[in-house]
Amino acid sequence: LLTFTDLHPFTKRLAGKLSGGMKQKLGLACALLTTPRLLLLDEPGVGVDPLSRRELWRMVAGLAGDGMSVLWSTAYMDEAERCAHVLMLDQGKLVYQGPPATFIRRVAGRVFCLVPPQGEARATLALWQQQPGVRDALIQGSRIRLVLEHADTSRLTNPHLAIASLFPVPPRLEDAYIDAVGGMDLRPSSFAENGSPALSTSDAAAPLIRAAGLTKVFGTFVAAKDISFEVLPGRIFGLLGPNGAGKSTTFRMLCGLSRPTQGACFVAGMNLLTAAGAARARLGYMAQKFSLYGDLTVMQNLRLMADLYDLPREQVHKRLEEQVETLDLTAFCKVKANLLPLGHKQRLAMACATLHKPAVLFLDEPTSGVDPRTRREFWKHINAMTRNGVAVLVTTHFMEEAEYCDEIALVFQGAIIARGTPDELKAHCPLAKKPTPAHGAVTSTPDITLEEAFIAYIEQVNQKDNGAA
Known about the structure:
This protein is α/β, with parallel strands linked by helices. The chain is 34% helix and 23% strand. It has 18 helices and 20 strands. Helix 17 packs across helix 18.
């Protein structure tokens, strides 16, 4: 089992000190000790980077090929699409049971993409997300992906929609799932009206987040080395990387939760090393793991945060009502936080992080493990806040989510190994250009996913290291 999971080099390491991917491998090895006929995996891909998730799939596929039955629970439709048979559930009811390909055919001919004008992706997305006849709309790099209620695009008559520029694309399981559960919520996010006030022209040119040569050393181990970048108002910056690559260390330094060994970090123009209290008052932070008070109700947690952020008394009641309504927590106000479903825990965490209308929002895997529909609601709210000038720093292992970022830094072995827009990372990754066997010319590989690019960059660095060794 140690050979099967590649855990031989880590037998003396405490389980709690393993990376997320290695923890999942250890859990799999323990589950296989008795050579079971049936293997139950409860969301094993949550919190695991794409490279580790691919290795996990390879191992499980090998077990299934040897005759073991596997039941894999997941909220990620790209994982479900790999299965031979799926049971699609929504609110306790069975939506579909059978092969994924059969379910996908329900949206055949109804999935389209369009390329919005440069710099207008989020505004264009918001327009489509409010249109009757649109079942789903989300950003994919420089494109917007749409699932329509009807294949006939002429039924969309809004003159503000670029209907003529739609082009059909192959459907996916997630397209069919969103369509089957009633489509996305067409209501606009009230964060667009109730969020942070728009910045002046002069403020809009100054970065709200700045990392300057951030380095963190633990003993002889360099967790992060010379990390530098800026995030302007209204922009979303993604920190991506495998488990243990250094992105979480960088994230914690920028939040003021860890002091850098070298370098400096600034939030809204304030140095976190010299004015930590004032800087933290300008930022909102949503942790990867639920970190609010489980024995307090939803409303008690919100009132506590209002006190900690020192909201003016005359504003508290109105602000709490806005947050509860915006994030659909009205029915849960008197429920203890530790009894909430995962998706509602994440909504409460978002409500607390944005209660004081911060200029900067730090999101550490904000939708880890939540269903596709809830994930879309979260990003609708995040996009609405950026239109008010909020700067967002996000970490995620879910590449579909990373497509929303204006810029991405890929961190590996404590350093930034690639940086650019999602489309730039895909276009310049090692998979994007390949010599043809016939004459050695370079040709482009079409439709590379961000997950494939992520893995290609990591493997390229590993190959160089192995070659040097």
